[in-house]
Design brief:
Layout lengths: L1 H5 L4 E8 L11 E8 L2 H14 L3 E4 L5 E3 L4 E8 L4 E4 L2 E5 L4 H10 L2 E2 L11 H6 L3 E2 L2 E2 L4 E7 L4 E5 L11 H4 L4 E8 L1 E2 L2 H18 L5 E5 L4 E2 L5 H4 L11 E2 L1 H7 L6 E2 L2 E3 L6 E4 L5 H19 L8 E3 L6
Parallel strand pairs: 2-5, 3-5, 4-21
Antiparallel strand pairs: 1-2, 6-7, 7-13, 8-14, 9-10, 11-12, 11-13, 15-20, 16-17, 18-19, 19-20
């Protein structure tokens, strides 16, 4: 099988690759093989070859919002690493493997408004679409016109409606066998100086909250839509914490004593109840234990279930 994979052009093969190097948490055991595909042909050929041999397989992106099991993944982990960006006026065509920050910078320089509020969000464009990433009142769904993806059999393209975007959700998140290849975005004209000033201000705030050197996945839980909360929980929420119809999970977590919690090397930040980080040498088991404890506390006190933003690979959640 390895010889077949090695024969695929533009496919980079890493045997027994330690996955902690590819996640922001810096946690995770090895993959049997890690495959980086530089173009669509390489990605599809590798996916099909693995399917024919029965190897277990999964796809990841930049590892920003990912927790890999301590014993790794006994199969093949694929990453689509194409990095093309093309501009036609206000339309941007971008590959899934492009760093989101690179895309933000490129649009700001060209005076295209829409992505500047996402500066500082780590990860790749494919992951941002997959999870409908957003910040400061903007989300990817507002810019996406269409997405090209591989469904396991052929390449397809769907429009914005077909992506079924919701808050931190998309059809891709529910269709684990689909691989995002590229997207077409439509932005609006803006003043490059103004956009850069906005981006710089947001980056300063973000870096104070989530230092680039911090081993974390950003906010560990999704915020909650106020309309979906039971009346008993809504009654507990001060109007001052509600933003754009959403209640930060951090509010509920703070009420149940999350700040400063720890499990050996895994800790909840003292200044942010929804920030879980690895102080060094932490394990996926420890992360899962704190997540489970926090979910239990919030459920018992408020009668609501909070949901992780982080995605899991290996262990209990093997695909």
């Amino acid at each position: 099988m390895l010889f077949r994979l090695l024969a695929i052009p533009n496919l980079h093969v890493f045997v027994n690759a330690s996955l902690d190097r590819y996640t922001r948490f810096e946690i995770g055991g090895p993959a049997r093989v890690l495959l980086d595909a530089d173009d669509e042909t390489a990605m599809i050929e590798a996916w099909r070859a693995l399917g024919e041999t029965g190897w277990r397989r999964t796809v990841i992106g930049g590892g920003t919002n990912l927790l890999v099991a301590d014993d790794g993944f006994d199969g093949a982990v694929l990453r689509y690493t194409a990095k093309g960006i093309g501009f036609e006026g206000e339309v941007v065509r971008v590959d899934a493997g492009v760093l989101l920050q690179d895309l933000v910078d490129a649009t700001v320089v060209r005076g295209l408004r829409g992505l500047e509020t996402m500066t500082g969000i780590p990860g790749w464009v494919g992951g941002a679409i997959y999870g409908n990433a957003g910040a400061y009142g903007r989300s990817m769904n507002e810019m996406v016109e269409s997405v090209r993806y591989f469904d396991g059999a052929e390449i397809r393209e769907i429009d914005n409606a077909g992506c079924e975007f919701h808050y931190r959700e998309s059809v891709f998140k529910r269709s684990k066998g689909w691989i995002i290849l590229s997207a077409t975005l439509r932005l609006t004209p803006g003043d490059p100086v103004e956009l850069n000033t906005t981006a710089d201000g947001i980056l300063k705030i973000r870096n104070e909250k989530y230092p680039p050197s911090m081993r974390c996945a950003g906010s560990i839980f999704k915020n909650l839509l106020l309309v979906n909360l039971p009346e008993s929980a809504r009654a507990c929420v001060p109007s001052s914490v509600i933003r754009e119809g959403k209640v930060p999970s951090a509010y509920f977590l703070e009420q149940v004593g999350a700040k400063g919690m720890s499990n050996d090397a895994i800790r909840v930040a003292d200044y942010h109840a929804n920030l879980l980080y690895n102080t060094g040498g932490g394990t996926a088991h420890q992360v899962r234990a704190i997540i489970a404890e926090l979910k239990t506390r919030v459920r018992e006190q408020f009668g609501i279930d909070i949901e992780e933003e982080v995605q899991f690979v290996g262990g209990e959640s093997d695909p």
